[in-house]
Amino acid sequence: MDESWKLKRCICFFARCKWIALALCVGIFALSAESAVARGPHQPARVGILWIQNAEEAAPFVGAVKDGLRTLGWIEGKNIVFLERYNQGDESRFPTLAAELLALDVDVLFVNDSAVPAARAATSTIPIVCADFYDPVATKVTASLARPEGNVTGMSWQSVESGVKRLQLTMELIPKARRIGLLYNAGFAGAVMEAQGLFDAAHKMRIDVVGVEVRTPADLPAAFAKIKRERFDVLLVSVDPLTFDAREQICGLASSLRLPVVAEMSEFADIGAILTYGPDILHTYRRSAHYVHRILNGAKPADLPYEQPTRFQLVLNQKTATALRIRVPKSIWENATKIIK
Description:
Layout: H1 2-35, E1 45-51, H2 55-71, E2 80-86, H3 94-103, E3 108-111, H4 116-122, E4 128-133, E5 152-156, H5 159-173, E6 179-185, H6 189-205, E7 208-214, H7 220-230, E8 234-237, H8 241-245, H9 247-257, E9 261-263, H10 266-270, E10 275-279, H11 281-296, E11 312-317, H12 318-323, H13 330-335, E12 338-340
């Protein structure tokens, strides 16, 4: 009787272990399924890239994202495929291009700020990652950076704040400046937000900032004529695809007028702007790869708070400062991350 009881206990124990083992296996499988791309473990993830301009012009920025993903273990052609669409300078093409990518069964859309409205209109379910928001709160994509809404998340450059910082640096560099021109694309929502932020800040600082609007490349000659006519002490440039593409023309005009230029992206300093200040752009794009990585491993956009850039670049063109006989204060020398001599 005693031996029979022991035998029953052994049978019950092994049966219980069997069910525990089965439960553990199911749990592990569920976790694996949740963290894998929905299409299956042996099929590469499909990332749709929706961007401005063309592949050649976008290469440094899109390339930084791909580099970031590569360091996270995503190898193009092996476990990830990039499906790329560019608007060739025509924003009206974005809805069609977004539809094309969705028809290709992408797992996530990686988009430029200009493409966000078309991407959101095209899908409310496929995750959308944007690496260069001007400000998702101001554009009403979300009410909170900490709690993304819908299917969108990414990096917020908070360009109004860095724009005000550029104005402050301008006054630090050229304290006697009183008439400052602001060249910006009035047809680009982010640039308009940045411009309004600068106008408000200039009013508080009792500085006269005059807007010079462009909407298309055809507007540049008239804008340049106004810049010549207004005789500004400094020209601020709000960077968007239009002004970035025209940077050589802008800096060439400024050089002919002996007019200091201050902008966001270091590419302007490389060709003559006296000062640039803004996020370390390539680092920011590489950082945005973490969003794509986490989404491909099962995270939802709502679980991934918007991040702001943590690295900024202050680039001083010493050659331009010397040519314009502008004495650079010690504070800018000490804080410059790069000096062009």
